[in-house]
Amino acid sequence: xxxxxxxxxxxxxxxxxxxxxxxxxxxxxxxAGNDNPNVEIMRQILLNYAYYQPEMGYSQGxxxxxxxxxxxxxxxxxxxxxxxxxxxxSLFVTSPKDDSMDCQxxxxxxxxxxxxxxxxxxLLLEDEGMDLLFCHRWLLLGFKREFHDLHVLRMWExxxxxxxxxxxxxxxxxxxxxxxxDLVWQKSMRVDEMLNYFNNLALEMDGDRVLKQARSLLxxxxxxxGIPCTLRGLLSGPGAWDSATLPEIECTxxxxxxxxxxxxPRQGKRFSQESTGVSEKQDSDERVLVNTNGHGTxxxxxxxxxxxxxxxxKEHQENGSSNLKDEIPNEEQKLDSSDSKEEHENxxxxxxxxxxEHQENGxxxLQDETSKEKQKVDSSxxxxxxxxxxxxxxxxxxxxxxxxxxxxxxxDTSEQKNDGLSPRKQQNLNESADLKVEIQTEEPKVDNCxxxxxxxxxxxxxxxxxxxxxxxxxxxxxxxxxxxxxxxxDT
Amino acid sequence: xxxxxxxxxNNEFLFKVLIIGDVAVGKSSIMKRFAENxxxxxxxxxxxxxxxxxxxxxxxxxxxxxxxxxxxxxxxxSITSAFYRGAHGIVLVYDVTRMETFTNIPKWLQELDxxxxxxxxxxxxxxxxxxxxxxxxxxxxxxxxxDSNNMFLFETSAxxxxxxxxxxxxxxxxxxxxxxxxxxxxxxxxLSGDLSTCILSEQEKIIAGSGCSC
Lengths: 491, 214
Prior knowledge:
The structure holds 2 protein chains of 2 kinds.
Chain A: H1 3-21, H2 37-52, H3 62-73, H4 76-89, H5 98-115, H6 117-125, H7 136-141, H8 149-160, H9 168-180, H10 182-186, H11 191-200, H12 207-222, E1 226-228, E2 248-250, H13 280-294, H14 303-318, H15 328-336, H16 341-360, H17 366-383, H18 392-397, H19 405-418, H20 423-431, H21 433-440, H22 443-456, H23 462-490
Parallel strand pairs in A: 1-2
Chain B: H1 2-7, E1 8-9, E2 12-21, H2 27-36, E3 49-58, E4 61-70, H3 77-80, E5 89-95, H4 99-103, H5 105-114, E6 121-127, H6 139-148, E7 152-155, H7 164-184, H8 202-209
Parallel strand pairs in B: 2-4, 2-5, 5-6, 6-7
Antiparallel strand pairs in B: 1-2, 3-4
Helix pairs in contact in B: 7-8
């Protein structure tokens, strides 16, 4: 780089860094107050990073990402190397290339098409709806400004674990849309209204709820028998798919000359453009059945999870951070424990403990947390039990703690089913545990019915399709009955 | 013109205004001061875009302003370029305490020229005028530049609120003129993007004149 250009580059970096550090997270206790030395530390780290990685330099948003790390690690050197690692490893951070942003947006669009059909249909109607303006900040800052610190760190950990996908943040984005995006299509919001709506949701959303939903979506996605070729990239990465059956890749882009999945066309293509009309009700039913179906597969060797965690720890040690190997036995217990209520409570306590440790010591390495997070995900996946079981709120809402294991699972299923309901109905359900018992008497029928539909979905003959349609209409009828009952009880 | 059909509905004008300029010149602060009449020095950097609306009445006409706040850093320019489309007004902001933000204004103008827009009204804001002791851009230099580029300049302070409303009102009056100009010349095949086609009428000049210093 010529000297004049180099000088200009540095002037630009310094000026931007100087302007940004004084306005990053200043309400956070760690950076609050005038002449706070931690602000200067943040500045030094960013300048060092720009010197260390001149091709990345400094981009606005980096200070946001660093602030979370620095306030957690609370050491300049460690925070610097954590930040270097974050910039290297994570795809969701500010990327120097726009095409990687485009790639992420493409994945998001495709997942929305599959998992949030009504929202996607609304986007199609709006001019420039496909620019997905409302989620650029989500992706660039890893949800940093959308949720409170603790939730953001949990989400980062979940993303960094690269569990089954390197694009878990895309699933989180879809989860936000599913949890909070119904109003968008119900009120036919325009693109600018949509942006405003989601911007106003910043720091108002429930991070735990979104994370749970995202895990559920990933699980659902992973169990699909076929995926569109446009989402082939979601299968990439070291953690992708483990030993699970690889799904069929189906061409939906119709670029016959360039797409290697373009032939032969399969019957009953599940994700072709024509089949995007899958109703949300069906989607949510599928979610129920996926989890139900997963139950009982806990004989999958849990040692897999432990091994990979050990790898994580080794990697972690190399990075010069603290050793948490001692914790493995405890975590192992957590993995082995699965169904008993007592163990669930352990999970909850451990979860809470993590938070306290995080806040009080502030020194817990982020990567250690990543391993724990991964184990939690592993645990829920291996047991086929919903991740929801670890949620404190869930246990609070359920008055059936003393009931036997079977009933508890069924309630979890109905709880999961509720995800597809409107917030009002969901609230109603949460308020009445007795009602849940009533509902669950009908739920299994719904699940079994939809399970059949689900398993056959990919290779359907026209006759089978017809039979399935009938089944689905009966599913709808039952769901309506359930909904009606909810409404009646409410009044 | 589509643009004009879109911006006049139910006797209310809807104008899309973009705020652009270098990093940390006060774009978000200007938007929030005007739309919500608040100021907080702790605003984080804008990532992507932000957006506010403000309704006002000017010369008996109801106007709804959509104000789009863009990121100043070049990293996000490719994203923000999508927002230039359909803009009726552009607010270019520099910081009177940093000369480089003023000397970069031509670069922002160049970028505007690359965009696909129709008869966009441009206005220049010299922000942070309350920091008079730190002033780096002489008032005369700035007004001379604005004049030679056929732009109106307001020295504003988002912190104190000084001249912010007046500047926006002036912008709105010019956009209304541009709207009527475009309507009356709608039969012409192309409306040039050049500002000279949006000349102020005498009547509108009177409305606009109150806050104009040039």
